[in-house]
Amino acid sequence: MSITLLFDLDDTLLTNPFEQFQTAYFQALGQALSSRVSPDRMLACLLHATRSMIRNTNPTITLEHAFDADFYPSIGIPKDELHPILIKFYEEVFPSLQPITSPRKDAIECVERAFQRGYRVVVATNPLFPVTAIHQRLAWANLPVIKYPYHLVTTYENFHFSKPSPEYYAEILAKISWNDELVVMIGNSYEDDILPAQAIGITTYHIHHSSEIQKPAGVGSHSLENFYPWLDTHLEQRTLPKPETPTAMLAFLKATPAAIDTLLRNMPDSTWMNAFPGKQSNLAALVCHLRDREVEINLAQLKHFSKNKEAVILHGTDRVNPNNIGGQALAEFYQARLEVIQILHSLPLENWNTTTLQAGGGSTSIMEWIETVIAQDRIFLEEIRSII
Length: 388
Known about the structure:
The protein has 388 residues and is an alpha/beta fold. Helix content is 53%, strand content 9%.
């Protein structure tokens, strides 16, 4: 069985006392920007913009863009004026915070053993920092990206959702080309690492540094040293990620456009219509088909159900325009998917399991239908990755 391990960073791979580190980080950043803005104002704007990142639910807006849209207008200084100062801060000042942290021998051994076993490894840290800050902290953990071939490191530049939302974990699955394989989240926080990962069916392994920790019933606590004995003993009992609840299904529905946004953001016009050897389609045609399925089938059927409380089989028509480079079709897909999500959010939970008549015989429910949509999403994602 293929296995992917998701490792939290702070206090999992790297010992990092959060309050001490955060205080020192805020003080250092405030000092670096003090020539342009007072430290108190900077901190207030920084915290408010961070909350905007955490609250972001739009799968077409990265956390970086959510932060920028809040921070720079509120602080009253354009990004292009502060950006050089911030680059210098992360290059010259941020490294001075390393002594607050310390590497973990058990974490290094755990990660190295994962690669020796041929597992895929994802650094699933809360992506509220830029890539340079996260890469530096990995280096402080003696687990640098230049040495270890991580499959993915989550940062605010490449992610749209953050912990503790289940959407964050669904976005990871959408981006790692997950195909019915065992995925295990390893972390120290129930609220950020364990509970939201479990919400979408990911197996979890909670590590702790105190025997007095309070934990919810049914959730075990372990040490990193015991991870592989635990994994090998319980391997056959582990569940695979699956959208089995409304919460999980909504998370997966949001994760698909988030992953596509990462893959196709700023795609050059010349690339949309390129023919690729061995491929029956190009990106423009594929995205047009994705849009047509979402607009003419998924959204139309859901609108019909919300009004008539019954489902119908609808057939979309491909509207590929030879002159359409794909960008407009992609925007139309995003808009339709956001409408689908909005309608589903408004449906009473009892309607999710309601069996509805379907033209042509047979029956289905909202949950069964959405499960099919998510399965089709995964096929489209694989096709886009394959072409790219």
